[in-house]
Specification:
Elements (H helix, E strand, L loop, with lengths): L4 H9 L4 E5 L8 H11 L3 E5 L24 E4 L3 H14 L3 E4 L6 H9 L3 E3 L4 H7 L5
Parallel strand pairs: 1-2, 1-3, 3-4, 4-5
Length: about 140
Amino acid sequence: MYGDPATIRRVLTELGDTWAVVGLSNNRDRAAHGVAEILQRYGKRVVPVHPRAETVHGEQGYASLSDIPFPVDVVDVFVNSDLAGPVADEATRIGAKAVWFQLGVLDEEAYHRTRDAGLDMVMDRCPAIEIPRLAPGL
């Protein structure tokens, strides 16, 4: 329900290649680190968003989405579910085209708000799992 195949395909292949990854830091033990690496392997520009604004995988980090000085296509969210809604709202404010909530990140109200604002939304899925399935088409 929260990640129909057509929306997943569109987000991964049509909406653009600049992905802000909220929660991405240099901590290799966190899922965001490995997922960001896979996204880069598939040609995505990964922009770290974390309070420490660390450079990760060669990309300058920013403390918040609104600090990013260039357009962002997709906002990939690796924060607790109770913090995810405000991130989705900020993604809408900065003009992102889509929001992707990672596995286990659930907020139905944010899902509907984001879709109602005209953005594509995927929830409780992982792009690192989905993008290899589309590899022949990329």
